[in-house]
Design goal:
Elements: E1 2-5, E2 19-22, H1 27-37, H2 41-45, E3 56-60, E4 63-64, E5 80-85
Parallel strand pairs: 1-5
Antiparallel strand pairs: 1-2, 3-4, 3-5
Length: 92
């Protein structure tokens, strides 16, 4: 099982847990397993078409999946998956 780091805004879906385990050989399978164990979490990460929402960044071992194989990025049991909400801001 891979370790999945959950950002604070999504921890309400994981009973407050910062890290959870999920099974799968791709990011998509990891998200599906997460949703099985924590219903509703995948809908917060992916849009109605199944694509990762623009304001969510997913990293596999510190590499942005958008520059890898996106949702088909391969995952091994020893890997760490991190979900990080995008932060917007500007000059005051």
């Amino acid at each position: 099982m891979a370790t999945v780091r959950i950002p604070t805004p999504l921890r309400k879906h994981t009973d407050g847990q910062e890290e959870v385990s999920a099974s799968g050989t791709t990011i998509d399978e990891i998200l599906t397993d997460l949703d099985k164990n924590y219903p509703g979490i995948k809908a917060r990460i992916c849009d109605e078409y199944g694509a990762v929402r623009k304001f969510v960044n997913i990293f596999a071992n510190e590499e942005d999946i958008r520059y890898l194989d996106n949702l088909q990025t391969p995952i091994k049991d020893s890997d760490e998956v991190s979900m990080i909400p995008a932060i917007a801001g500007g000059a005051a």
